[in-house]
Design a protein that fits this description.
Length: 240
């Protein structure tokens, strides 16, 4: 199946196809026809790289930023997180493996298809099944979903990781990020995400940023947690 990307004007085209790799696992994969030297990409949550991140536990900056390091009573149930810019779902899956119930929200339909495929594969793996069951995949625009009164109070934390503009100065982004950027056209409207998220009933809003980037929308966070080459800006909601 060949699909047309959102940015037709830039002349990109992609193939979405099921590829069975040397490990015998069939994965829905996205191939950039204009980049024949790039292999296909897929949403894969069962990689050694992600396993290492998950093994770093609830004290890692991402987990602390969303509040996963705070004890919860059985009555409270799992921390409810909206990953409002899900992408390939790696951050969201990490949070689910660390105990959160995660709504993965993505506006690009092709990326959503990759996410659904990743979840189905994770459901079939013993060590990942419970986390995959705590994940739901929503297709839509974050600004609308967050502002929808039907979703009021649904999430404890809203997590935002929009693409950072390619300033041409930094090292080339990863192959996955480069293809995602070409598929979606980048997230030039990223600043518009923060105010609706802050106006929601979520107790905190977390934004992932490159270390040296200004805060999203120029709005200073309440707290920051530093990671490697990136940081998590945390906005605590005084009304929640
Ligand atoms: C940098 S990627 C996220 C990577 C992700 N954190 C991960 O771990 O794989 C950003 C994603 O957010 C999506 N996105 C950006 N703005 C959005 C919006 N307003 N609503 C829904 N999805 C959005 C983009 O389509 C893109 O797939």
């Amino acid at each position: 199946m060949t699909i047309t990307p959102d940015r037709e004007a830039r002349g990109f085209s992609f193939a979405l196809e099921t590829v069975t790799a040397a490990d015998g696992i069939a994965r829905l994969s996205l191939r950039a026809l204009h980049r024949p030297k790039f292999g296909a990409i897929c949403a894969d949550w069962l990689t050694p790289d992600l396993a290492r991140r998950i093994a770093a536990g609830r004290k890692q900056p991402l987990a602390k930023a969303v509040g996963l390091n705070k004890p919860r009573t059985p009555d409270e149930g799992p921390l409810q997180v909206l990953d409002a810019t899900a992408g390939l779902g790696r951050d969201g899956f990490t949070l689910a493996m660390l105990g959160a119930a995660v709504s993965l929200l993505e506006r690009n339909p092709t990326t959503c298809a990759l996410l659904r495929d990743a979840r189905l594969r994770a459901l079939a793996v013993t060590g990942a099944q419970a986390a995959a069951e705590r994940i739901e995949i929503l297709e839509g625009d974050a600004v609308q979903v967050i502002a929808d009164p039907a979703n009021h109070g649904r999430w404890d934390a809203i997590y935002l990781d929009p693409m950072y503009p390619d300033d041409g100065k930094s090292a080339l982004p990863s192959k996955e990020m480069q293809l995602l950027r070409e598929l979606t056209g980048g997230d030039a409207d990223a600043d518009a995400l923060l105010l609706p998220a802050l106006a929601s009933a979520a107790r905190r809003v977390v934004v992932k940023r490159p270390s040296k980037a200004p805060p999203l929308g120029g709005i200073a966070p309440s707290l920051q947690f530093d990671g490697t080459q990136l940081r998590f800006d945390v906005y605590l909601n005084p009304r929640a």
